[in-house]
């Protein structure tokens, strides 16, 4: 049911717009790139007939596999206890992996029979495991322990099921009376307490109903031969709640009680004998409590939102957990000691599934995603087993650091420099970063997706201070020597180099999207060898005949700011900032985002230069040749254009010029002879000026081998190498002079609003700035004029710097600790790092069990130093001294603090936030309780507080590119005001995302959020609520319960709850968001102003005036700080405060605030703007009220009790007016437009699009042209706002150009 790939009109436009004129269609998309898959999802209904229950109908879709019906049946309350069955249509068994549309005779109303099948050992195990999962379905321990892709969600605790039936259920009468609005003390503005326990509130459902005391494998397993021949598969041992001990046989026909006891084996069936195909039916027979509680448990289970129970694609670990009782669990016990995995058959020796090439792209990606998350889970488990010493090395006689391992067909190596491989690059330090560079390379080549080119499945795991790289194994590689396998690239960093025509052909296809230049190098015999990648990239043909590439650690060009090369002069911008700087290793690369931004920047430059020259030619045909010679010598040209970068204004005048250049460039590229030589000259000069490798069209590429130790280039390419060196210097300068200032400017404009270390890192990475520049970014902030408005960024930067430096120290610290001392060592480190206690003493693990005989032989098993107690001597002074010197050496930033208390004071940091950051970075899980960091008499942490240490896993996220294109076109449509079409496209994207990723994924979360926003704008409040609820649950489950993204999602959900008149729920959600933000960052954050305005407005609506004022006045203070006291945001804040004072009849205060607001409007917008007029009207009204009140008071004073009192108008604010204000502050404006306005609007949008087309680049437009360019998919967007008309991102009420029906510029 996939429609033949129809070129979708709107998408075609979108694609062209994205190709920026110099990126060809992505290679490997089978040539015709415009194809987009439209899924015709017309479902139909089938009837299911299962034993023992009434037949029921099930809605299915033609692309589903039969297997998916199996899954549904295993989840349904009435059929969940069956696992071993087949589905039959008219007596024919259906193939599990067949798509429904391929099954003959299956149509609307067909009857499918569920037929019980005989068990095998495998099926019996699966059955027991499934029953265990059903018994544990409400128990959060797997989520706390980070097992099986379970993770936490707390939304239902705060909504108390209020969102049921998509939010249509409302309480009787008005909710006014029964709302208790007072938040807990720690949530109020100004509170200094940051409790930790509230992070994971206890859920009532967690005390699960006990169905059995024990369900475990019997000690009589495996069955002896003669019993096996009677069909016994395995034996189970059960203790019921009534304390009855029974032994159960699992046989091929089902389950029955046998007569064995703990000490006597008697496999005969017990009396009365009862054979049941399902274990649940058998247990229902023997235990009444089981029967009652199991059905109650399943009722509860199916009531939970599906998103609370579906597994996530990758494991999310929680950094805190409550104290849990350890329960007996047969499945977990068995898992712990088997090395085989349930899905070993899925993990072949390569990354991309074999015969999927010819399947439609979507299906191929779906398989790829599934294999990928399985591979990541297996690799993580294997890496932990390797470090814990549970896997035998393949070279056991070598010293520990050198060992390599194979487990489950995955190859593991440790991040140490084995055999001096990285001697020239920085030894162990280089060996530690190489895997992450390699992973970035794998990610990039996978994204380009060239047919016939394969990468290895790669996962990098940091665990207990060690870095382990896990890779899938190339088929056949273990039988050959590496030297004879490598047919492309070099195994010794460029001494011997080989090449291969097939590899050149495949890599050539990637060179354009990856901007890699084909180049020649010399090998040790001085022969020229042609390569299209860096020399370390190796090509090996596997026994399966596929072309694999590996060692992609230098896919991107080197970062010269951190690679001093003798005799090379760096540009001025770099020298000014103290570069080049010696780094710990020589593998520093530029990020792909930087390469793309740099090329984008150069393209703009190229267009400008060419346009200027064409205009000059026009202006004076006579002297044109002379002018050209002067105007465009490369150095001069670049420098000049860098200057003109600042005054972009000129572009508008020569849009036509740019159009001509574009046409000209295309004609020349197509190489027809019609172009006159002078125009050719223009393009050639422009190409030369920007460093393009071709002189007929714009094409910038990098040679990744430049400045690589040991690589030599032939004489013939001397000039080319010189140009490449210059290009690398320019790119390094571009990072410092454009990208860092750009990031800081975006932070000033609040278009980027990081809230914690991870979101700051993400914002830096999106602009191609590596984390090693963090110190430079912070220094740049301190020198920025609006420094106070960047307080929050400065604070996040410093805490990130401190925790990253601490993480580097913690890594080597842990390597010296043996397993038995782990919790003592970690608690000691955290005490030194965060506690005010001056001299914490480490408890050596020898206390618990002292062995009399010292075993001398076991010394060398530990990967670390021989002395395993060195860690115990660390002191807080020493640790902080190391942190400061690490910050200086690595980030080039001087910290001014000698201990945790000073750091907290000088930089205004919260210790709880530092604890969260360091725990997330190192994988430590601590006990959920209140920690007293400031006690000077006893240390903060004891070893009982350290519950676990998890791996920190880096892996590749496969991209669903088709779905992503739909998503982007949907956004573009919405921004142009075509809401309906946008909505359809985004629904289509959601459909595709679900097909590729399954139900849970970060990108699906963004999709749902935008859909909810659109539902809300289009007036469908309950649908908005239902979609946003899914987005919140998904964000909690996939990103974490206190991730900044989750906080945003909570805020949106609160707004939609309010619109659905669920006021108390809205308040609960806002309070939760505020608590999380206080924990993650603290109070002083621009986003807190928005949150407090929301809370204040809702409280105003429920007439809690005094509380409301506390929040609104706090928001006013924060807005004034971060937006400047003259900004329109502050004016709005004044107005909100004035309204509450009016409701309290305190007219003097109300007048004072409204006057402030009025003054701002008048100065910013002028007398005649509608906002100024509104404000002035309101002032008049307040004055009248104040006068009336005064009259009444005077009357009372004069005449005492028999005064004639005029009734004053005290009105509780109407819900509609509150909602209107909520919409304004959350950036949703509804502007009624007439037909004529709409016509103008469409013309305006078209004009803008033409402008866009001609400039062909989003980065460098003036803000005014950014309307269609904002990408909301990036989590750094402050909210799911659909930013339209960001004429200036700072203010909402600036004179709006006539754009779009809903104006959803984020609270602008």
TrEMBL record:
GO MF terms held by the record: mRNA binding
Localization of this protein: Cytoplasm; Cytoplasmic granule
Main location: cytoplasm
Sorted UniProt keywords: Cytoplasm, Repeat, RNA-binding, TPR repeat
Record's compositionally biased regions (Basic and acidic residues): 9-25, 640-653, 1256-1274
Biased composition annotated in UniProt, kind: Polar residues: 623-639
Stretch list, region Disordered: 1-34, 164-188, 623-654, 1253-1293
BP terms from Gene Ontology: intracellular distribution of mitochondria; mitochondrion organization
Ranges of residues in domain Clu: 275-563
Pfam families documented for this protein: CLU, CLU_N, eIF3_p135, TPR_12
One of the record's GO cellular component terms: cytoplasm
Function: mRNA-binding protein involved in proper cytoplasmic distribution of mitochondria. Specifically binds mRNAs of nuclear-encoded mitochondrial proteins in the cytoplasm and regulates transport or translation of these transcripts close to mitochondria, playing a role in mitochondrial biogenesis.
Family the entry assigns: Belongs to the CLU family.
Protein name: Clustered mitochondria protein homolog
Lineage: Eukaryota, Metazoa, Chordata, Craniata, Vertebrata
């Amino acid at each position: 049911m996939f429609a033949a790939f129809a070129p979708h009109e709107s998408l075609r436009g979108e694609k062209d717009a994205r190709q920026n004129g110099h990126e060809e269609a992505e290679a490997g998309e089978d040539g015709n790139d415009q194809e987009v898959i439209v899924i015709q999802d017309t479902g139909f209904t089938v009837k299911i007939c299962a034993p023992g229950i009434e037949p029921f109908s099930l809605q299915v879709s033609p692309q589903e596999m039969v297997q998916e019906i199996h899954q549904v049946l295993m989840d349904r309350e009435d059929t969940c206890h069956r696992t071993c069955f087949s589905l039959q249509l008219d007596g024919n068994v259906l193939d599990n992996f067949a798509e429904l549309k391929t099954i003959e005779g299956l149509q609307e109303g067909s009857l499918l029979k569920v037929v019980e099948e005989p068990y095998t050992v495998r099926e019996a195990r699966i059955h027991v495991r499934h029953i265990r999962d059903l018994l544990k379905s409400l128990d959060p321990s797997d989520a706390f322990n980070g097992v099986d892709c379970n993770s936490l969600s707390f939304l239902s605790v705060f909504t108390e099921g209020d969102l049921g039936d998509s939010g249509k259920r409302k309480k009787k009468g008005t909710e006014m009376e029964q709302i208790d609005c007072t938040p807990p003390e720690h949530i109020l503005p100004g509170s200094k307490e940051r409790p930790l326990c509230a992070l994971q509130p206890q859920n009532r459902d967690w005390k699960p109903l006990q169905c059995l005391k024990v369900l475990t494998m019997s000690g009589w397993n495996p069955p002896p031969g003669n019993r096996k021949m009677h069909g016994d598969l395995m034996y189970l041992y059960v203790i019921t709640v009534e304390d009855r001990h029974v032994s159960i046989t699992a046989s091929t026909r089902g389950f029955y009680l046998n007569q064995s006891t703990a000490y006597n084996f008697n496999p005969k069936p017990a009396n009365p004998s009862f054979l049941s195909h399902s274990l649940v039916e058998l247990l229902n027979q023997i235990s009444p409590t089981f029967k009652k509680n199991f059905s109650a448990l399943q009722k509860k289970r199916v009531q939970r939102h599906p998103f609370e129970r579906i597994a996530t694609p990758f494991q999310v670990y929680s950094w805190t957990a409550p104290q849990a009782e350890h329960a007996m669990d047969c499945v977990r016990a068995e898992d712990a000691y088997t090395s085989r995995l349930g899905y070993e058959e899925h993990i072949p020796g390569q990354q991309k599934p074999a015969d999927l090439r010819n399947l439609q792209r979507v299906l191929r990606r779906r398989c790829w995603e599934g294999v990928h998350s399985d591979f990541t889970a297996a690799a993580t488990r294997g890496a932990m087993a390797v470090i814990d010493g549970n896997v035998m090395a393949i070279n056991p006689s070598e010293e520990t650091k050198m060992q390599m391992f194979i487990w489950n067909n995955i190859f593991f190596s440790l991040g140490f420099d084995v055999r001096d491989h990285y001697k020239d690059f920085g030894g162990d330090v280089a060996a530690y970063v190489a895997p992450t560079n390699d992973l970035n390379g794998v990610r990039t080549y996978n994204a380009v997706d060239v047919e016939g080119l394969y990468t290895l499945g790669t996962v990098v795991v940091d665990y207990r201070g060690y870095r382990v790289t896990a890779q899938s194994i190339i088929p056949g590689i273990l039988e050959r020597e590496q030297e004879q396998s490598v047919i492309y690239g070099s195994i010794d960093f460029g001494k011997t180099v080989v090449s291969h025509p097939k590899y050149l052909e495949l890599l050539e296809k990637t060179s354009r999207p990856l901007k890699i230049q084909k180049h020649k190098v010399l090998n040790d015999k001085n022969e020229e060898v042609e390569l299209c990648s860096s020399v370390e990239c190796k090509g090996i043909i596997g026994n399966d005949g596929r072309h694999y590439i590996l060692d992609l650690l230098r896919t991107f060009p080197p970062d010269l700011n951190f690679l001093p090369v003798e005799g090379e002069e760096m540009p001025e911008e770099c020298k000014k900032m103290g570069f080049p700087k010696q780094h710990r290793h020589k593998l520093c690369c530029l990020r792909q985002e930087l390469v793309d931004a740099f090329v984008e920047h150069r393209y703009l430059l190229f267009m400008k230069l060419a346009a200027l020259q064409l205009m000059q030619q026009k202006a004076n045909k006579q002297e044109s040749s002379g002018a050209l010679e002067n105007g465009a010598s490369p150095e001069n040209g670049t420098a000049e254009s860098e200057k003109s970068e600042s005054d972009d204004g000129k572009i508008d005048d020569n849009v036509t010029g740019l159009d001509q250049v574009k046409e000209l460039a295309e004609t020349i590229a197509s190489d027809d002879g019609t172009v006159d030589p002078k125009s050719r000259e223009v393009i050639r000069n422009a190409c030369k000026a920007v460093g393009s490798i071709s002189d007929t069209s714009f094409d910038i590429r990098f040679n990744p081998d430049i400045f690589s130790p040991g690589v030599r280039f032939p004489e013939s390419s001397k000039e080319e190498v010189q140009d490449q060196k210059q290009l690398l210097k320019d790119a390094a300068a571009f990072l410092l002079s454009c990208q860092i200032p750009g990031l800081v400017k975006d932070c000033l404009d609040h278009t980027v609003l990081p809230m914690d270390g991870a979101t700051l890192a993400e914002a830096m990475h999106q602009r191609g700035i590596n984390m090693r520049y963090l110190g430079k970014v912070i220094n740049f902030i301190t020198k920025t004029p609006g420094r106070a408005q960047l307080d929050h960024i400065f604070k996040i930067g410093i805490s990130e710097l401190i925790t990253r430096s601490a993480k580097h120290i913690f890594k080597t610290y842990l390597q010296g600790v043996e397993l038995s001392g782990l919790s003592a060592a970690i608690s000691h480190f955290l005490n030194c790092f965060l506690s005010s206690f001056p001299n914490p003493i480490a408890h050596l693990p020898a206390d618990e069990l002292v062995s009399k005989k010292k075993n001398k032989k076991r010394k060398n098993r530990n990967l670390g130093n021989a002395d395993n107690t060195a860690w115990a001597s660390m002191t807080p002074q020493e640790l902080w001294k190391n942190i400061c010197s690490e910050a200086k050496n690595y980030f080039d930033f001087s910290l001014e603090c000698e201990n945790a208390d000073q750091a907290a004071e000088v930089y205004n940091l919260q210790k709880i936030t530092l604890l969260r950051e360091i725990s997330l970075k190192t994988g430590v899980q601590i006990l959920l309780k209140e920690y007293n960091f400031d006690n000077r008499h006893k240390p903060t942490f004891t070893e009982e507080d350290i519950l676990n240490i998890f791996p920190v896993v880096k892996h590749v996220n496969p991209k669903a590119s088709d779905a992503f294109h739909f998503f982007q076109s949907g956004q573009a449509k919405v921004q142009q005001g075509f809401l309906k079409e946008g909505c359809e496209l985004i629904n289509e994207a959601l459909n595709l995302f679900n097909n590729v990723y399954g139900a849970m994924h970060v990108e699906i979360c963004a999709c749902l959020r935008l859909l909810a926003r659109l539902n809300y704008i289009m007036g469908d409040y309950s649908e908005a609520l239902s979609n946003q609820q899914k987005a919140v649950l998904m964000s909690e489950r996939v990103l974490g319960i206190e991730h900044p993204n989750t906080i945003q999602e909570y805020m949106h959900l609160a707004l939609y709850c309010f619109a659905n008149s669920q006021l108390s729920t809205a308040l609960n959600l806002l309070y939760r968001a505020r608590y999380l933000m206080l924990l993650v960052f603290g109070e002083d954050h621009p986003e807190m102003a928005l949150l407090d305005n929301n809370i204040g407005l809702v409280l105003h609506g429920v007439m809690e005036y005094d509380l409301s004022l506390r929040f609104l006045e706090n928001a006013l203070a924060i807005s004034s700080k971060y937006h400047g006291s003259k900004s329109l945001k502050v004016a709005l804040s004044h107005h909100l405060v004035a309204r509450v004072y009016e409701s309290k009849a305190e007219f003097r205060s109300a007048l004072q605030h409204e006057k402030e607001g009025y003054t701002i409007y008048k100065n910013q917008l002028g007398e005649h703007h509608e906002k100024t007029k509104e404000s002035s009207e309101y002032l008049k009204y307040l004055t009248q009220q104040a006068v009336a009140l005064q009259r009444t008071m005077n009357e009372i004073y004069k005449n005492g009790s028999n005064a004639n009192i005029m009734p004053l108008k005290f009105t509780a604010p109407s819900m509609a007016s509150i909602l209107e204000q909520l919409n304004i502050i959350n950036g949703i404006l509804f502007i009624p437009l007439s037909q004529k306005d709409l016509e103008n609007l469409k013309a305006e949008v078209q004009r803008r699009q033409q402008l866009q087309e001609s400039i062909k680049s989003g980065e460098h437009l003036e803000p005014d042209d950014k309307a269609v360019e904002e990408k909301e998919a990036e989590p750094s967007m402050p909210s799911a706002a659909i930013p339209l008309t960001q004429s200036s991102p700072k203010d909402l009420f600036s004179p709006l150009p006539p754009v779009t029906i809903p104006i959803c510029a984020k609270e602008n």
